[in-house]
Protein 1
Amino acid sequence: MSQKFDIDSIAKLARVSLKPDEKVKLAGDLEKILGYIDELSKLDTKNVEPTSHVLPIENVFRDDVVKPSKVRDEVLDHAPKREGSFFKVPKIIGE
Amino acid sequence: MDYFKLTVREISEAVQKNPAEGSSVLKSLASRAEAVDPKVKAYLKIQKDFPDSEKSAKGPLAGVPISIKDNICTQGWETTCASKILAGFIPPYDATVVRKLKEAGAVIFGKCNMDEFAFGSSTESSAYQKTANPYDLSRVPGGSSGGSAAAVAADEAICSLGSDTGGSIRQPASFCNVVGLKPTYGRVSRYGLIAFGSSLDQIGPITKTVEDAAILLNVLAGHDPLDSTSANVPVPDYTKSLTNNVKGLRIGLPKEYFAKGLSPEVEKAIRNAVKTYQDLGATIHDVTLPHTPYAVAVYYVVAVAEASSNLGRFDGVRYGARVEQSNLLDMYLETRNQGFGAEAKRRILLGTFVLSAGYYEAYYLKGLKVRTLIKNDFEEAFKKVDVILGPTAPEPAFKIGEKSSDPLSMYLSDIYTIPANLAGVPAMSLPAGFSGNDLPIGMQLTAKPFDEETIFRAAGAFQMVTDFHKRKPQLG
């Protein structure tokens, strides 16, 4: 499971820009942690089912009932920027 | 009267008898926090204006002040996860646990410091301040619920809530000589807990005594329609398990928890606890949890994958901080660059990597499969015993700065606590001794899913015949 850890492409996927000095440190840390995680490859798990969740709960449904709610303004109140009843973001087109 | 020294039970009894005592309790606790928090730095915020105390004179927690980890939403109170990216976030609602506490008569006293987004084992990764261990101010309180544990230990909280994804309630409880319970996954609603690892996270109480933990769990536990992963399982009265009788209780000692890496002082304290249980009539059995050595590796696949996904929502659009840029993508990149600290970035990047195309099967899927093996280990062990006993952490509290430059050594301090989260089983840390230099040592009791009662039975009996939990730090 050895690989070249491409910090730039991962940072891009994660939508984090990194300063040059922190990039070197983080890449080193992550190589080391992945080296430790590679221990898992020693175990034979061919016939083992994965556990993504420990409780035997599946598809929890509820009735789709409309209820009054006043949270819109409270939610928009602590947005970094709003306009009317919308979140406001910088322009998207032209990136 | 020094109300701040009292327990949950003592305060609720006093306030139910005489509601006017509620405000005396709050005043006493506020002046205690004013005196010791400049040293301990457990709080990010302390309540100044308390609601009418008469209102909270009823219920099982009548007049009881409780301090809340800062990743649990409190309506109208800033909730930051100790991160800059959530600075200024004021939740428009209470977490279910906070609502339940208020309905039971409790008063929210303060918000506690933590590792940023609960990423850490020392509370050093908080973006705001480092919390000190009340027993030795040059040492960490543990983490990530370090503020919640230190506040209770320093008598500047009567009780608190923490959250536990890989040991974040139990490890700080062990470092600070208090009781910390991680309930069964699904036992307590996670609604309003800002998510870290959604398949692992649980909220639980941190208290001065085992009895107080039972009183709090009575209020916290139960199904919540607002959390689809909360379990619809009846809630017993946990205080009824405090029978002080462990005759015939089968206690298992996992040999993997007494292996290389365990400090001899911690081992000695745990062996003494075993002896105490034998004297009380419990029977001791060797058990094996053979996949324990892989638990940390599994955790740093599963937990970081879930974290990277959960933290995708912090993008400068809907809440918290934004770093303005001329276009949307740059705004995301810069907001997340400046908003997240080093450990948060490390985990987001690692989680993104293990989920990325080409690596998903080798890392994430492999991790989930080994998680099954770890869960099976517990199922096998619980065929032979009722409860598993071991150390909570390999060593007592370490020095501030000692592990902060080496993430892997920090991660390994959770080796005994992580398996319970991966398996979803309940586990408690409680005071079990002191090291030669007077640092607390905690022991961990683990039981079957939804069998917190057996933990309370075993822990309550131990606390009845020991005094470790009564030994307070010297804070002047």
Protein 2
Amino acid sequence: MKFGVVIFPGSNCEQDCHYVIQSVLGKPVEYIWHQDTSLKGFDAVILPGGFSYGDYLRTGALAKFSPVMNAIADFAKKGGLVFGICNGFQILTETGLLPGALLRNVGLKYVCKFEYLKTENTGTPFTNLLQKGQLLRIPIGHGDGNFFADADTLKRIEDNGQVAFRYADGAGQITKEANPNGSLNNIAGIVNEQRNVLGMMPHPDRSSEEILGSADGKLIFESMVNALVAR
Amino acid sequence: MMITDEILNQHGITADEYKKIVNILKREPNITELGIFSVMWSEHCSYKSSRVHLRRLPTKGPAVLQGPGENAGIIDIGDGLAVAYKIESHNHPSFIEPFQGAATGVGGILRDIFTMGARPIAAMNSLRFGPLHKAQNKRILEGVVGGIAFYGNCFGVPTVGGEVYFAEGYSQNPLVNAFALGIFEKDKIFYGRATGVGNPVIYVGAKTGRDGIHGATMASAGFGEDAGAKRPNVQIGDPFMEKLLLEACLEAMEKGLIVGIQDMGAAGLTCSSCEMGARAGTGVELNLDTVPQRETSMSAYEIMLSESQERMLLVADKSKEKEVFEVFHKWGLDAVTVGHVTDDGILRVQQHGKSVAEIPNRPLADDAPVYQRPLMPPKSMISARLDDFTFLDGCEPAFIETFLADTDWNKLIKAAVSSPNLCSRQWIWQQYDHMVQSNTMVGPGSDAAVVRVKGTKKALAMTLDGPAYRVARNPREGAKLAVAEACRNIVCSGGRPLAATNCLNFGNPEHPEVMWQFSEVVDGMTEACSFFNTPITGGNVSFYNETFGGDIYPTPVLGMVGLIEDLSLVTRSSFQTAGDSIVLVEPVNVLAGKVNLEDERAVQTFVSTAIRDRLVKSAHDISEGGLAVALAECCYSNLHRGAIGAEIQIPFQVEVRKDLFGESSSRVILSTSQAAELKKRAEQVGLKFYELGKVGGKRLILKYEKVEAVNIDIDELESAWRQALPKLVS
């Protein structure tokens, strides 16, 4: 089993993801340079948070053209696990590996704080250790996390059970107050139809150890390990 | 071009300084050379007014690997690791253009850290603004916070703490002090030295433009009505570029390609080249035609003085030039050889085949004039009226009257916690990424920020303190208070203070009263830092903080760094568990506005041994707003639990208002399940010890003598505290 963490120019959470896989989970992990064209030997690929290409033009819009993205599309098509966190999620929507788009937060400001996420779909390789409705405390840190999709796409995402996580309050209620960025239907993370690509704005990489305030994020990475072991 | 008096005046060069320049060159300078001297000898770069005083500060200690004079100070934290850290001001640019001024302030301090080979792992900032009931101050606050967030978030350094105060004196002169700290292996430190004759001098990073020309000179004068016209002097920040520079520089260092390196900050190419040569005792020859330029037809004067951001100058080993290029090109950056190291100690600048400047490095960098400016205590000090309640400074006058007269304590505590200087800063720090790098154990809003050190059992604690009102009332005592409180904050978080950095923000040094304040502050810091064995390893002086002739409060800001030996000793300020006892520890003689250092040490030693022996659940020092406000702060909700109440008997000492809200020094609130043991220990060392009450319930109840002075729902109090700043800025 081998994880890969992609480095784009401007990525800044690659070391955090690497640390969780290597030091918290104790699993093999290597960095992947954005100009690499082969993902041979990898079983799961993480697109980390950060500001790839400075978020200039539009978040994720330039990273889409990095050579590694073609390899990632092939990898995903063949069933490899692809996990985009924050900027990684933005890149996945830009490349079309996930539906929808991430717009500027409704408050127009960057927001960094802990949120409650309600688990919506446990039938994915990223959530198989979670219970339906389970609340996870995982922080966000973004200026463009406002999930948007046109009405048809949104309906399809919902009908297909592609919503992995929603922002909720501490009691598990999906409320407007619990929505930090204006995302439609409080969506915090979605999977593709095949369930092997997950994108989420919150950072499980920042919440995989109790000393950081929460270890809930670790359950997502452990689910990935669980899924890979089962293969 | 003839050098006229008018030109000298524009460059801020005095007649005596000009004579000195002619003496060094043994001829008249040309305009490019004059420009170079003017930035290197500006107050900002040369410390010409402050140097005689700064020499008194303690700079050495067992942990210190690098003191002042390099890009940042460095201390040893064991395990083969070291940290580089420094604080720097960006006040003048932030007044003219708040967003970019603050952003480039963050960029500059981060470069200072990674230039030495350290990866920045934490940032903090200390901010001062005029009161928010004035529209202009709101605009400045929003711009500054936005700029810090823009730069730090993209770069990927967590902004883990800081402080923000509002007072009228900063209305026309906000202060933006940025702190950064980086970590590295202690045998892999890089210095700004141009060694090895014949080695290439390589320019990396952003292209040079006409932005920021004479920024250092701008920062060495006050502002009048033309402040807006100085906007073109402010640089524009590109944090993405800086992030690439960070990664490329660290990679080149790791591969052993770099001999010496310095960032191009204030005074740009001039400062980096001549300082690197001066430190190594070498010369540097530059060919400006090879410097990457963003604009056409730039003169030598403009290229040498540009303060375009995100640029570095490095000296590589002759044989490794190509490898350096490869690393930088991999990261998509310009890397060009612009000159080489020579053996004659002269900075030689060529453009279009002609020599445009030729100046001996060492006198340029090191022989700037040193002024022993006149000192005079001011004839009048600010009024003593708020001495017990300094947080009121910065409130509207009507509010102050009410606070000093009213006796509805329930109403007053709510008013106090929602006042500008005491209310939650969440609106600010929520805009900063304070978690990236996944080390933040205690983030913004605490006494000290705590980040763990990956690969060890240790954590670093850090805090900024700048009690400006206290310093304005008594500069020497105020400076000692800053040191004492910074150390106390580190101790309360479970750490041991190691060393400090300071940012000294003052008015016009040509005013004898300002220089007197400065000298007193240096003496106070020297006394307290020597006492606590926390040397000052560097920092920054910012003079000329004046607008329309009015000087700001003297505002020294101290950044203290401490070490927590084991992660399990990290202690938070908030109460943990219902049923725990709440205790107050203080010296027998409680002082306000000053500090007895021996007593302070007794309190700190008591707290740190109690934490070490695991007798303490939480520790919070009492500062602005006194005991009542500190208790409320211990009750608010946080990451680990919802809001929790407390029932307290306030000790009778003076009178109810002062006993609730008075701000005396050297006091700490602890929560514990072992009050009896703590009491015994306190009595042994002669400290006063009060068992105030218990944690629990959902109300904050403060009894004073026989009555319940305060009895308020903690959620209600917390929401007043949390919502005050968003209301003030809306």
